Amino acid sequence: MLTLIAAVDRRMAIGYRNQLLFWLPNDLKRFKLLTTGHTIIMGRHTFESLPKGALPNRRNVVLTSQAGISLPGAETFPSLEKALANCKADEQVYIIGGASVYRQAFPLADALCLTEIEAEAPQADAYFPTVDPATWHETNRETHPADDRHPYPYAFVDYIRRRD
Length: 164
Hints:
With 164 residues, the chain is α/β, with parallel strands linked by helices.
């Protein structure tokens, strides 16, 4: 099962200068809950943006064209295809970014786990692919209002690829 997981604003923006656009504690909790114990695949820049390096209790896989690079706590592969070929058939794999990795994995994905933020980031330079309702079926939506720790309303939204 290949799942893309991301937090997106109204324009599908996901980042600016290799950083998240919004700090939403509940989004980070959901990310940890869903990905712990599973495989996460990311690009090298995303790995380098992680404050403490490899995420604990997950198999960290990094895509990089730099041969021989050593990233503590992570396995490296030169392409998404090679990384996926090194995953077991029953392995739950999450793609966690960045934008180019999302674009590569989007046609292969079985599911999407998005945090849809009801705001537009003032600056963005990385975007998630468009979620076309003809291709993706929404299976769950959990809405949350803004509060003292979350400056904007948001929703946890799950999609599965239509197979009809």
